[in-house]
Amino acid sequence: MKTWTIILAAIVFLTVSCKRNFDEPNPDMMTSASYWQSEEDAIKGINAVYSGLNRSNNYYNRWMHFVYLLRSDEGFGSGGDIGLNNNMAFAFTSNSTGNGQWNAIFHVNYRANQVINYVPQISMDETLKKRIIAEAKFIRALNYFNLVVFWGRPPLVLDVLSPTDYPPNATPQEVYAQIEKDLTEALVDLPVSYGDADLGRVTKGAAHGLLAKAYVQQGKFNEAKNALDWLVTGEGASNYRLMENYADNFKRDTENNGESVYEIQYKENPTENGDDDTNPNINLNTGTSVAKFLAPPAPGPGFADGAARRWIVDAFETERTVDDKRDPRAGVSFLYDYADERGPAFTMVYGQTWQQRYGTNDKRVWFRKLLNDDWRNEENFSSPNNYRMIRYADILLMYAECLNEIGQTGNAYAYVDRVRTRVNLPSLTVAKPGLNQTAFRQQIKHERLLELAGEGWRYFDMVRWGELANNLDVLKERDADFNNFVPGKHEWYPIPQGDVDNSDLTQNPGY
Fold first, then answer.
1. What is the CATH number of the domain that holds 179?
2. Where is the RagB/SusD domain (predicted)?
3. Could you point out which of 205, 246, 261, 352 has its C-alpha 20 to 30 Å from the C-alpha of 141?
4. 4: Cα within 13 Å, side-chain hemisphere
5. pTM score, whole prediction
6. Domain range spanning residue 184?
């Protein structure tokens, strides 16, 4: 009997001792709770949030630009990546389309949430603490601005989740409310500017600008105007100006200039061939690879996975400058046979003429603003050219739009005039005086098309202007991809099916 008692006790002991909690922290590894101890930890933490924005191939390093540019009527998938081409032509069949961008955004969001949740507990300089938290809130708001426009109903993840947390879909209204909250709180603690050591961090002006974009996207024009006042007529206005040379907004040597409200920063990788594409086992890339994928194809310097539609360069021909020249923004925004108005024999493409590379009958068009053809004859996977996300010209055009929508059309002219006269077009006051609200609204659409061509805001504008619902026939004429567009479905991407299958999320309509 005693022997059986001992055996039973041993079995019970072994059974209990083998029950392991696999969710408990590994004592040999640093945890989130144990990391956040010092001011240095806080600085490294917010730097990691910025790193997630600019170093992930699925975010602003490459793929998000394709979503921005090619999903609109400006561009299309033009290379050998059939999956990309179908994605941008609304011809995808998988509910995992956009999965890479979705995951990259939530990866950055996870980092931002750590800063927002853990930095408050650190004993450190209070002004710096508040600034770091504000920077993280701006980036979280930017993440959700992308999510709500392209996916519509993402989960609101505002804490550092455990593996057992399954937040449900939020409504677009709930997402926008959180964006507004994050940015309203952030702008209080963000500085107007930084010294050289911190150049590129989020500023108060950037928060005002993104907040205005969130309001405008919802049709909240009074609120948007109030957010823009600080930048246009308020204390922040003296910090910004339009550059005399429009092209200076897109060159490596004139980054972070007076027109820049927010830029994502890049620098060329310091080691030879040290980028992720050619050396997959290292992660040294401090540049962006998007230029290589947007640059013109062989016999040229890039892969040309995304191209622009011809109609948009034709739009620049509708009006001449005051000295009877073509709108100079055309050749700055796009590479094509007449980027130099004199034609293919004068249009330069990375050190050769268009005629030398492509002949005289090639009518293809390539996005130019993210390229480096002004200073080198090839592209690699480590471009140092910053992405100018929000420019002051954009701010002025939004301000004019807000004034028009709240019934102050006459006051709106001055801000459009500043943008037009910078490129030597006649002022709108002279060219088209006395427009009513409806006509001025159409003019704003034209002004934004030309001023911001190839910068990524076109799809956002199309969504908020109702182009996808009310102007689909025109879109089909401009861009054959829209023949595949299904109203009520393709306004949003599908939520990645793997996330739907393993959470409390529900799929978007039509998928």
1. 1.25.40.890
2. 259-511
3. 246
4. 1
5. 0.92
6. 38-190+491-501
